[in-house]
Design goal:
Four copies of one chain form a homotetramer. Chain A is α/β, with parallel strands linked by helices. Chain A contains 17 helices and 13 strands. The A-B interface holds A 237-238, 242, 257, 260-263, 278, 280-281, 284, 288, 387-388, 391-392, 394-395, 398-399, 402, 405-406, 413-414, 416-418, 420-421, 423, 426-430, 460-463 and B 237-238, 242, 257, 260-263, 278, 280-281, 284, 288, 387-388, 391-392, 394-395, 398-399, 402, 405-406, 413-414, 416-418, 420-421, 423, 426-430, 460-463.
Chain lengths: 464, 464, 464, 464
């Protein structure tokens, strides 16, 4: 890799905001430059991104130089790439609305709906086939590229790349654990009297699957944070009425509950964590969700949010607004620089298990720490999950393993088996489960071209 | 072992009927004879069994000779034994009533309640410590004896023996799969026109955990029964109203449903099978249970049944009734004879996993086929579970593994974690779960001597 | 399978004697009949076998009826077969003479030379590619057939079938352990005073790789033979001069030495056993071989033996001699009958490891016991090797695993690495090793068509 | 840990030179200070070290302050220690002379003789029992200390600590791979034209067992060194006469040969590497050793070298010479500082396998990279060994595993089995092997107190 001629392929990005963040970080890095190929099935969106990229370049605020060009053929976009970044929306918000809200009619609530649970499964049915295609093209056009995935369901997208093209140098990048590090930094300040604790000072062992990650150790300036965190929870969450929103400026009840019961630190946003256990625990009803202090993200909100972002993009493209060039706070730029030979770093990352942990199959993608160095990524053998946590996490890993197998084989009956075994579906009777699953499949039907028509319903089922 | 001087220790047997069956089989075997030591904490019950044993001996209907004696010290009872048979009731029907019925108040129904689910967990908390004691005494007094367990929870009792005394020659003996073989024999007769199919002609690969066992292959007279069974189900269960009791003399809806959905044959009674999956599937309400054609066994029924058996025993002991000496139909006698050097046989049995399957830990006890030969038992490497079945069964195995660890460590919080992860508890909110668990622990408290007082409640929990 | 219309394909058999044995057993079995397709690249040899088969059929001494026909196209020969028997000589005695005797010039002696050691490796280089072809044809023409291999190197031939066609129902059949059972029967008679002990009464657990198999338990009529065998050895082998041929009518010094040192029973002929350990142990010189009481089988002897057999065949074909129809004493007929639904049996067999033992890879073929039943073969989980034995056997398994990989990849450098790591090559300096290997490759060159010309020598080597 | 009150226990150090290096590094580190307890069974040697330590302290050249004190009771020396450093000579040079030279009479030559081979085995028989004692005392007196082992046999000493006290925070520290990094730095300069390449710029994945470690990747300034190294070897080692010492200032023939044949980089001194393969390869005779360009280290040389060091020590203690305070170039100081919270670092280290690699048992100690951070060491999952290398290395791991088991059980027969299976013993006949082993055991007898007298010879052996 020539540092001033790096080739980056960016797949997706119609969501606009994220593409802009990336382009700012690229401009500001000061070490590498080159060419960014923008590929999106929504070509106008890609074109907008090109315009904005050029505005950033011409703003004079960057420290590196990049050319941006829209490439409408995926093969051409990938040809000889050094890095491939994937960040797509599989389907539209219409399908996502079905993923998230169709289950509501059965008393099933999802706070995100893009990773596990009924929504996660249907989303995977749309996404895995798309990633099969990406993997084949990457194999053909840039087998040595580092492929960085940002799309959810993170684990399954990344696992698909490996399943189709085992030599792929892919990893999934997710900032979800950073929030828990920030939270622990505040805990350390309050309980230990430390000042100005930064996220990077919270040293952790990370293990789990994406969005259901756990810190198996956490230290700050040499102090073990486990007993500190326990005291903090006793002071706040357990003092008086847990549901009194006043006791803490920021509620993190789900992760605190999981820590107190399981003894290791659940490390993702509460909206994500709640989706990995039986729905009766935190998602039994909108009232219970409120009691636990987190929110159900409505897809209509996402639509409005997207409309805002598109409006903002239009304003930038039309020159009505100035592009600001600020660092995003995301970690991917540091990782890319480490892979280009600058400053090694350790970061959490989603990688093929391949023997790292025994509670997942070799084909599972798990999240853990890795060292990023010039041209390579080496996972660390983190402190193990304790057995009670392993019970929860291994169940998730097995679900994902079976789901990937079922989707790859286009075996609707097997996918339904996995659906019924999801923790978030634990309330469903078989009759309800079948009706819900078939309705959700119907709603996303146009993205299921590769599935034989006759198996678009569950056939081996129950005589209902 | 001298065939005419075999020493058998029988632990338990106060349940009377089972002891009588065993003594009949011993009398009729015609190959081995010797001495039976009867040990029960209910000494009068043991004494009754001795009287009945002697009546059988003096009836002249036997073909082997046995001396029966009550031994009130366990060590003395075990000393130098060749075989140890364990069949105990841990606690009384009062505790069992709590196991089975206390959860009813939370909408949780159990059809048996002695293996898994809330009832199975509490029963295990009483039973595992008793088996720890048995294992220590066996190690001290008869380390070379074959130990045959009949007590539930089967897997955990047997696993406890191995955990305490790794060299123990223990196995668990359960006739549950025979019923499914009988059922398949009828299926073969009806669908294939075979006549007089006997149970032993249904050749099967068996894999799973006790009461949640699966046939991964089934053949009869060279014909693969899988497609035959599928046709049978289409003909009966799926024709017209599934719940019409008239279509079949014997309903087996749960196992048929599991076969149609999972593609391998669930092989235990429906009452047991239903307890290994989310309660919403088959046990959501008494009405749903009825719809699926099986029953919830009430502990009051057990009390009445026991009273009948005690009455029968009294009548035999008092000479008001004649002892009948008939073969029991159980398999344990054939297994003992094979271990004594007569006619090798293959039978399903509960054994330490120890590398046989990857979906369970080495410490799990699993059920599979084994060859019984002179002085040894060798498990077979059966056809594997398919992946969708493995998803269900591995979850059960992991629950049992974690439960055993938690009980052995007297770690109430860990046991509660396992409790909340039980499929039969999948409906429970955390608040409900904590309340139910603490009540059930309270109900069985007098059998929890070894647990530190301060941990008789769940301490690390939820701020409730 | 229809019992009177079984289709058997017999590949090879030019060695004559073995084919005749098989045809006698087929004629005498009394249960199955049908058609035997004779395929051999030596067509006249196959034709002779057909004539002899027909003579057996017309002799009236058989109890089953078979048609014999030569089929010169392998695909046609395999089409729809129920059983495939493979027994070939890879190459000619010229190549075998090189395998066995070329190493003599370097002080390396081989007592057989067809399984491991320099001879075994070169033979594998000829044989594995042939078996790749068989596997492809079996997959195309009779994927459900049981494939019984008799060719050496047994493990690698069978492993090749699985590697190319993972669903193949193949197993390797070898009578080598029977000899040790016979020997132990004599030991039991002498030391225990038993009379008329038959081979089948020696109950054993078998584990290892073909020709380096071990009994991890051995019992006779309920008596553990391990201490008995130890006494026997002290009495005979260790009394006075071990090398005095008079003390025992049958010398078995190698296996007795291995038992005394390793504590489990090496169970193959001494000529085979000696080849699996460093050549200095038993094969250091012809004198040492004599001291250990076994022989180096000369390939010239094989040539003469073959000539005798051909002469005998000619005499039978020409009607100068009468065909005798006697049972062969081999076990394959019992196994075939068990697979056809008659009398289940347990026998040692060579099968894919696939998780049975941890000391071999999943792709290794190991030898162990299996139950043969109607349409299926189920391996038993035998008592494990003790650790000192495992050290020896695992080394062999790893050699075979690496050799198969190297040959399948046509990677001459890797095969040379394996060659240098063979126990029988442990004396060789690198310079000698390279010279010997290259000469042996040259000698067998015409069977190495598939290997790129440029890699017919070791290129990455030592600067010599 | 308080940085200015660190407690270090130094076990051993009578070898003088090494203790001085350590004390210099401690003095110069500038971050931590505290107390060093000197424990040695040779108390005067420890006292000398104390004097020298005080001289360093009073020299004013240090940047940290340390108190040195001799503690003659091991428990007292360990009490509350933060770090324990072990560097002992098990036995005297008399036993080492037997280890190294007794085998010469059988044509076996050893270039070091302290790790594997006949010498390594006998040394392990003396050392493992000593380390059992260390482990017990560490468990009792400083269970949370980091224990750094420097004694050979490195793997077995470290493995013993874990086997006796599984929670021990032990690792083995060896600078052997640094030499190969230095060598590759020179290769990079010559072949790539780089200037001033430092050892740390050679980025490697390390995997193997101590002294038989391999680089599974090696890069310098972003360039893959594998093809570069290949070219270098072709240029030097293979050009003209390999044995012409003039072509290279530094000969590294053994490692270059291993690279060319095996495709990954053997990374230890040639004297060590040569001992892990059959003795015929590089150690067949003193002439062959010379041809391969390395040397046989004579124990007499070690005696003279020791005498020099003792003389030097006396001179320093007596004030005849000035103590120089220079950095040692060893890495242990960086590791200690990282563990104390200063600058994280990645280094090769010897750690319990515990699932990292499949070619070794969980109980094996392997050498690989790890991240050193505040209070913890996390191994990296390095690029795997290729299969041909794994064949060599796994054999070594299995030998060590079996040897440790045998010594821990004081099972002389099992140790002899391992002895005979050592690559360096591959030439030995059984008669020779037995005679040599028994002689070597005799020579080291006084260190075998724990072994039952009757098993001081090989009893189950061969009738010789």
């Amino acid at each position: 890799m020539e540092l001033d001629n790096i080739k980056i392929t960016y797949i997706g990005g119609g969501s606009r905001a994220w593409a802009r963040k990336m382009m700012c970080d690229l401009a500001l890095n000061g070490v590498i430059g080159g060419e960014v190929r923008l590929y999106d099935i929504d070509v106008p969106a890609a074109q907008d991104n090109q315009v904005i990229g050029e505005l950033i370049e011409s703003s004079g605020k960057g420290r590196s130089h990049w050319k941006y060009k829209v490439v409408s053929d995926l093969g051409a976009a990938l040809d000889g790439a050094d890095f491939v970044l994937c960040s797509i929306l599989p389907g539209t918000f219409d399908e996502m609305a079905s993923d998230v809200h169709e289950p509501n009619g059965y008393g099933l609530y999802q706070s995100v709906g893009d990773t596990v649970g009924p929504g996660g499964i249907l989303r995977a049915m749309r996404t895995v086939p798309i990633y099969e295609g990406f993997a084949a093209q990457i194999k053909a056009h840039c087998p040595n590229a580092f492929v960085i995935n940002f799309t959810n369901p993170m684990s399954l997208c990344t696992a698909t790349l490996y399943d189709v093209f085992p030599q792929v140098k892919a990893f999934g990048c997710c900032h979800e654990v950073f929030g828990t590090q920030e939270f622990l930094a505040r805990v350390a300040e309050e309980m230990l009297g430390f000042t100005n604790v930064e996220r990077h000072e919270i040293k952790v062992d990370v293990l789990g699957v994406n969005h259901f990650t756990w810190f198996t150790s956490a230290e700050c300036r040499g102090v073990d944070l486990f007993p500190v965190y326990r005291e903090y929870i006793r002071k706040h969450m357990w003092k008086g009425n847990r549901t009194d929103g006043d006791v803490m400026s920021s509620k993190e009840y789900v992760k605190m509950d999981l820590f107190m019961r399981y003894g290791q630190i659940a490390a993702a946003g509460d909206r994500h964590l709640a989706e990995f256990v039986n729905n009766a625990w935190y998602l039994d009803s909108p009232e219970l969700v409120e009691e636990w202090g987190f929110v159900l993200t409505d897809v209509d909100w996402r639509r409005r949010d997207r409309a805002e972002k598109v409006k903002k993009t239009r304003a930038l493209v039309n020159g009505e607004e100035q592009v600001e060039v600020n660092p995003s706070g995301e970690e991917f730029m540091s990782l890319i620089l480490a892979l280009c030979g600058k400053k090694d770093c350790v970061s959490n990352v989603n990688l093929l298990n391949s023997g790292l942990v025994a509670w997942a199959s070799d084909a599972n993608v798990i999240e853990t720490n890795a060292v990023f160095e010039y041209g390579k990524i080496t996972p660390l053998k983190c402190r193990p999950l304790n057995k009670d946590v392993e019970l929860l996490v291994s169940r998730v890993a097995r679900q994902q393993d079976n789901l990937l197998r079922g989707i790859r084989a286009r075996d609707m009956n097997s996918v339904f088996d996995t659906f019924m075994a999801e923790p978030l579906c634990s309330k469903l009777t078989l009759k309800e489960g079948k009706a819900l699953f078939e309705k959700m499949v119907k709603n996303t039907e146009k993205y299921l071209d590769g599935w034989p028509v006759e198996i678009r319903k569950v056939t081996n089922c129950m005589g209902y």
